Amino acid sequence: MLILIAGITGNIGQQAARAGLERGHQIRGLGRSPQKLDGATHSRLESFVESKTYYDVAALEQAVKDVDAVICAYAGLPELALDGQLLLLRAAERAGIKRFLAASWNYDWRRIPLHAEEIYDPYICFHAQASLSSSINTLHILTGILAEVFFGAHQEQRGFTPADDGVWDPDPAPRPGAEHSGRMKAMDVYGTGDEPWFFTTEADAGAFSVEVVTGADAEKGGFVNLVSWVHSLREVAEIYRKVHPEAKVEITEKGSVEELERKAVEGREKWGRGRFWEYHRLFFQLFTIKGIWTLGKLDNEMYPGVKTTSLERFLKENPEI
Predict the structure, then answer these.
(1) Residues 75, 212, 48, 156, CA torsion sign
(2) Which of 20, 54, 130, 266 is the most buried (most CB within 10 A)?
(3) Model confidence band, residue 177 (pLDDT cutoffs 50, 70, 90)
(4) How far is residue 275's CA from residue 160's CA, in Å, rounded to a whole number?
(5) pLDDT of 22-63, one tens digit each?
(6) Is the model's pTM score more than 0.90?
(7) Residue 181 reports pLDDT greater than 70
């Protein structure tokens, strides 16, 4: 198939491109900065369509021409997740495309109402509008949290650290009187720390994207639950120490679920929805720990072409984490 990957220079976009090429598909890229794509991948593309903005309709029209399927790998910014995806979807409709994988590497936002977690509002709205008005039955992959985001693997991006109301601290400040010569990591844990968290690596997400959009039933659209691993936060710490015996992972118990909810609500009241980045990770933790948006039955077995990554393997392959 000829697959268009919109946002191909992003983290998942590049992984999807590699996965598609490995599976013998033709890949066309759409993005603003072709120089961000590694040379080996760029040289194997069918073509690269350079766009000025996400609302560059002329570029969208050129990008969707004669393709068999679309993977939208836009970054998780509200204007891209809603405005950008709708523009891309309309261009795909005009081109007669029937296979469209929306950017949706998330927890199950179908289980929460609008305004409950601002980061997911655009995805909820996009799906609602597409289901009401599009000739395309959109596809959505639900993956939990991306492993690279959780561990802060991309230093140029804001991560999921305690400083940002997240969990994993890759570089904690030493505590007074504490002595440890090996690598130090830390985790902030609300609740018991035994609640399940769903993780997917970007490489697995990219591979799943290609498998799903090229699948026999892709034109029917719908949702699939696909993950790399499921572990509690305490299990994450235990496996990290197993992979790195010299490491110490210090767990700070931050309080109860009720305390987390209180802090999240206070953050929203302080900052307002326009500055949701300042507090939304608290709600992300809250809904994960309470199991509100926990993924249902996993669909990994439907896509045997993807050999998922275990947490242990992921840590071994990324020793800098």
Answers:
(1) positive
(2) 20
(3) low
(4) 17
(5) 999 999 999 999 999 999 999 999 999 999 999 999 999 999
(6) yes
(7) no
CA distance 273 to 279: 9
Q: Which position has the token pair 């896509």? A: 303
Name beta bridge partners: 106: 142
Q: Which of 151, 144, 146 is nearest to 240 (CA)?
A: 151
| Contact of 220 with 137, CB cutoff 8 Å | yes
Neighbours of 146 (CB within 10 A): 23
Rg (Cα) of the chain, in Å, rounded?
A: 20
pLDDT tens for each residue of 197-247: 999 999 999 999 999 999 999 999 999 999 999 999 999 999 999 999 999
